[in-house]
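Recap slide: Phosphoesterase, sequence and predicted structure.
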Amino acid sequence: MKILITSDSHGLTTEVNMLKQRHEDEVAAYIHCGDSELPFDAPEMEGYYRVAGNCDYDRAYPEVEELTASELPILITHGHLYGVKSSLRPLEKLAAEKDAKIVCYGHSHVARADVIDGRLYINPGSIRLPKQSPYPTYCILSYEDRIATVRYYTLGGEEVPELEKSVTFK
């Protein structure tokens, strides 16, 4: 099972579509962690599990989305309502309440993956305005034999191996 995760595209349309097209034969789902700045029903957002970011004004976007993939409970939020730029603690509390194993969030524009209390927290970075990285990023989560692995890619499709993170779920 593989899921493409992106965030903080801030009005980009061609690139959001390009990611779907590039990986359509290998991923089972697409996640956008907010700040697309597009209407909820924009054609570019079709097929994405999506949430509201602080720059998304269409009220159709939910603040939090949940899904289950390969028996893994996944929680999606932008992160601005949980203070992710300063701490993941409030997001950790939400993840525990929802019993999520994977948490996808954005807002900080910083590509990173953390394992905290057996949960995998994934920020794909930004495909428009990256911070602490010289290039825009997105990532792909794969899950097989109880091992979840996050691999990061530049917008051009080149892997960024130093950001890779894996966790084994029991």
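Residues 64 and 128 are 22 Å apart (CA to CA).
The mean pLDDT is 97.
(End of recap.)
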